[in-house]
Amino acid sequence: MQFYENPNNYFKITKSKKDGNMSKNKDKKHILEKAIVYLESHNLLTMATASQTGMPHCACLEYANKEMEVFVSTWIGSRKVKNILENPQVFYEVHDVVNINKDDVKNIKGLQVQASAEVLQYPKSEFKSAWDIMVKKYKVFELIPLNEKRTVLHFIPKKLWMLDYSIKFGHMDEFEF
Predict the structure, then answer these.
(1) What percentage of the chain has pLDDT greater than the value 90?
(2) Contacts for 83-87 with beta carbons within 8 Å, 24 or more apart?
(3) What pTM, to 2 d.p., does this model score?
(4) How many other CB atoms sit within 10 Å of the CB of residue 52?
(5) Which pLDDT score, from 0 to 100, does residue 98 have?
(6) Chain centroid offset of residue 1 CA
(7) Phi, psi of 42, deg, nearest 5
(8) pLDDT tens sequence across 3-44
(9) According to the model, what pLDDT value does residue 100 have?
(10) Which member of 29, 70, 75, 170 has the greatest number of CB atoms within 10 A?
């Protein structure tokens, strides 16, 4: 498993929301490993973008990942692409579905990620590599015709939060790339 390195330190040290104390390096590695496993075990994310003027847009999308790099497919003319070309900052969340009642709310788990996005266009090699990752996860993507109208959005993570309310209501661990 490859980990993201910071030129100043293997990981940036950030506060754990759990107890306010500085997390140890091995804890940071564990948070990242947990986030990768979580991403690999889910299929949908909710992504938020904003236009240059700050107008928000949100969409639910299927995704594939290579460790913490995430890829989604869309049309070149979509609002998502337009917003990312104007403002490449995105935020997405992947979460479990739980019943909202006294007992089940304690089982909320999720992943929130602040990322930078880029638009990969057909027929460039970066598009092809990302498309292959999508097809590997979703065989049905082999049926989608590839042309200039199809694009892949590539999310490069900046910061993530792992939510796990089974530890404590509102618990989240933070990792900064």
Answers:
(1) 77
(2) 83/49, 83/50, 83/51, 83/57, 84/49, 84/117, 84/118, 84/119, 84/153, 85/119, 86/51, 86/52, 87/49, 87/50, 87/51, 87/52
(3) 0.82
(4) 10
(5) 83
(6) 18
(7) -125, 170
(8) 333 333 333 333 444 444 434 556 889 999 999 999 999 999
(9) 86
(10) 70
* Domains parsed from the chain with CATH numbers: 25-176 (2.30.110.10)
Check residue 144 and give its pLDDT. 93
- How crowded is residue 101: how many other Cβ atoms within 10 Å of its Cβ? 8
pLDDT of amino acid 25 = 56
The Cα 58–Cα 90 span in angstroms is 10
Residue given tokens 């490449």 in the structure block: 88
Per the CB < 8 A criterion, the answer to whether 57 and 48 are in contact is: yes
Give the chain's end-to-end CA distance (angstroms, integer): 16
Whether residue 27 contacts residue 175, with contact meaning beta carbons closer than 8 Å, is answered with no
Residue 130 tokens read as 């990302």
Q: Could you give the CA distance from residue 177 to residue 175 in angstroms, rounded to a whole number?
A: 7
